[in-house]
Amino acid sequence: MKRVVEGSQAVAEAVRLAKVQVISAYPITPQTHIVEILADYVSQGRMKARFLRVESEHSCMAALIGAQSMGVRTFTATSSQGLALMHELLHWASGARLPIVMAEVNRALAPGWNIWSDQSDSLSQRDTGWMQFYCEDSQEVLDTTLFAYRLAETVYLPAMVVLDAFFLSHTYEPVDIPSQEDVDRFLPPYEPAFQLDTKHPYALSPLVTPNAYMEMRHEMSAAMEDVLGLYDGLEEEMFRAFGRRYGMVEAIECRDARVVFVTSGTVTSTARIFLKKLRERGEKVGVLKVKLFRPFPTEEVRRALAGVPKVVVVDRNCSFGLGGIFAQEIRAALCNVPGERRVYGYIAGLGGRDITEELLEEIYGEVTEGKGPERENIWKGLQEVSHGGR
Amino acid sequence: MDSGVAFKRRLYMPRTSMTTEGNRTGSWRFLRPRYEEKTSPCSAACPVGEDIPRVEMLVTQGAFKEAWETILLENPLPGVCGRVCFHPCEGKCNRKDFDTPVAIHTLERFLSDTAFRNETKPVLPRRPPTGKRVAVVGSGPAGLSAAWFLTILGYECDVLEAMEEAGGLLRWGIPEYRLPRSELQREIGRIVDEGVRIHTGERVKKERFEELRTRYDALLLGCGLWKNRPLGISGEDVPGVEDGLTFLRRVRGGERPAVGGVNAIIGGGNTAVDVARSVVRLGGEAVIVYRRRREDMPAFFEEIEGALEEGVEIKELLAPSSIAARNGGLVLTLRRMMIEGKDKDGRGRIVPAGTETLSLEVARVFVATGADTAETWHLPPAGNDKTIRLSRCLLSFEEGVPVAYVGDLAGGDLNVTAAIASGKEAVMALDSYFKGGCGTILEDLSSCRVGDGTSLSMEIYLGGARKARSRHVVTYEEINTDYFSFEPRITQPRLLPDERRLSFDEIEMKLSAGTAMREAGRCFNCGICNGCDNCWLYCPDVAVIRQRRSGERLIDYNYCKGCGLCVVECPRNAMALEEEGGS
């Protein structure tokens, strides 16, 4: 059934349909709507779940680790500083192989205090062992949340469903909300690989010596690789259940393109319109939407960019001292691949600043004029600032 | 599920069934928490040292009998004090800095009412008989208190009372509307039930007192101050001038004297106010004439407020200079006074304001400016090497058996609760004397002090649980007020002023159990553990152990790493944190 809902509600509906058993969260803008809706569902009895109120995001993740270790399906949502506060326990959740699913609403980190869209928060957690999916619209958010449970519970790794602050979390769009029967067909009840049992007490994750630690880490790494192998098959199942699929990446008119824009999140929608216009003008331009960031779909990226001479990566984030994080990942993926190409990293739209079609056109102009820009990492759309005062 | 994808990779997840108790986190500790109950400010302010935080805790739990018994161990007359005490406890209540003090006074009265309604028999600790006999002269609050505590400590006790009914000032001095006779009789009945013999109509003259010395092991003299102190002005003996104490005694004896017209009452103490309010009830007009200001009146604040509500007038800064009969009435000549500096008590010093006088035409004059001992031998001897002066009594070893001068005779604070405290102190001192001689009295009594003042605890004297408490008086800053929310204080139900003027019915009415429990729930229980278990809940090392049977909490120092969370989260400062290896 199609309904016009807020992006936050798309997440909440997916969590309800996934029959999550334990929810815990600490409020933070712009994530709060999600757990507000869920709290209502729990209190109204629309969900048979426990909602644990906690005093911090750190405690929230600790609570979910405990709950998931008892063999139940769990959920949380957070943003920005809240995610940063969870950091220690993000490692624990993945290391303990607990398929916790989180909605991460991309928000800038302070200072300056800023509640708007920026990917630095989720990308700072790149190496925690969590899967990351970057969504473009509310429908994709809903589907991906359900998909994340299915995938996470198959490989026993936690997953972050990432959505842009406000552009997605607070925007209303028509969303097809699948029936409970369809969801149940796609997402069976959680079967834990192991679980705590108060009748037969034991402790998980005791001291592990160098004899075994490395093997545990290797299994995590292998599980991430398994995701890449399982992804399309599971999406096929989702397609049969809901009639939709998205792919790890989506290559839009890349085959003959001379310039491909690599995007993630809501910028992709802007890029689609920009692409249509430029194609009408006969420009050979394409867009590569990267949805799956961890594990990184190296092969899919290589295939989509094969033979493309110029790649522009639009990053709503920055790894200070190097540049945009997606740009680095794309460069790394294209390393060891024969062929001549330039990869330009463009940083734009930090802290919620809009990335417009005009801005993308400007970038296109820069990279196609002559030999293209000298620099490989470029900040786009900067304004004069006054440094008055002390 | 029509799954095409069925995939499970084997998972290596180490686990152990070995207990983590081997990790003795207690070895990390450099700060050591411990349970340390402390003293509440209310109990330190209470002249008889009642264990108020524990009483309120028990009321909150609905354990009314135990709460009542807790009071009885320190004060045999909660039904009296719940009515007439000036409740200094509430003035020191830490809750006053949060919203308003707990209505401790009202709750004491509630417990007494409840015990009597249910005909509860108290069970109190008692020492075995000592074989010693003590005579108590006077059955006022000091004498009754002494008799009670003597009985608890195993002494045989005879109380000799001159009047036909026991109670002293409680029976003959305090008006019925403040302390109904039936309530007093119940209190005294309970003391008699404990084995005290009260002989009424036994006026003890000097010769009889000397005889008692030969028949008892100790004597207590607590016959109060019943002789009105004269004003020393002309006309004091004209008809129509009466002393206040005699008037109150007549009224309490059942007389209803005619008091028509204007009655001047000279004085500013409780007796003056009691006379004025009695006059109003008998149909007269009452004007209190006081030489100082209203705020200097020694009468209790609530009594003055009540008197004003009932229509009593107060004339301040007027000193009587003469009384004369005129036209069947009296003319009271008054001198105007003024405040100049302060006297040694810190009250404003009064001096005549010029030579101006004014006259007041009245029907009657009541003198209530103080009282003295009825006989000179009631006065305690001057201090010498055969007397020991304690905070609220005086012991004399001059002639054979020890004699304790208690209550108003001992000087000091002249109020019911102070008199009860005096009787208690004298009994503790005598018991200490019988056990260890004169030399141990001061030390024994000092070890029973509640907090930093003069209040003494019988429970501590008997070696009860209260003995373990620190003498530190808990301050407001030491309460973790995060655990409390603002709650309005109950209002004591009272007769309306118009209803009061018509009879001597008791003004203050009864409280329901639900209301009392709610009010007691406002108590911070400063310094004592009420089993809230915050310590247990917050301990990250599961090092707080609850003893199920005794209700005690213990700290397992094998695992306590000294984070101090328990101490910080204790709402009522019943814990302490010290440096490991410190003093």
Written description of the protein model:
The complex is a heterodimer of chains A (390) and B (583). Chain A is an alpha/beta fold and 390 residues long. Chain A is 41% helix and 19% strand. Chain A has two domains: 2-190 and 209-242, 3-Layer(aba) Sandwich (Rossmann fold); 249-379, Rossmann fold. Chain A contains twelve helices and 16 strands. In chain A, helix 12 (357-368) links the parallel strand 15 and strand 16. Chain A is globular. Chain B starts with 14 loop residues before the first strand and ends with a strand. The longest helix of chain B has 21 residues, at 416-436. The mean pLDDT of chain B is 93. Chain B is built from 20 helices and 22 strands. With 583 residues, chain B is of the alpha/beta class. In chain B, helix 4 packs antiparallel against helix 6. In chain B, strands 5-4-3-6-19-18-17 form a seven-stranded mixed beta sheet, with helices on both faces. In chain B, strands 8-15-9-10-11 form a five-stranded parallel beta sheet. Strand 9 (203-204) of chain A pairs antiparallel with strand 1 (15-16) of chain B.
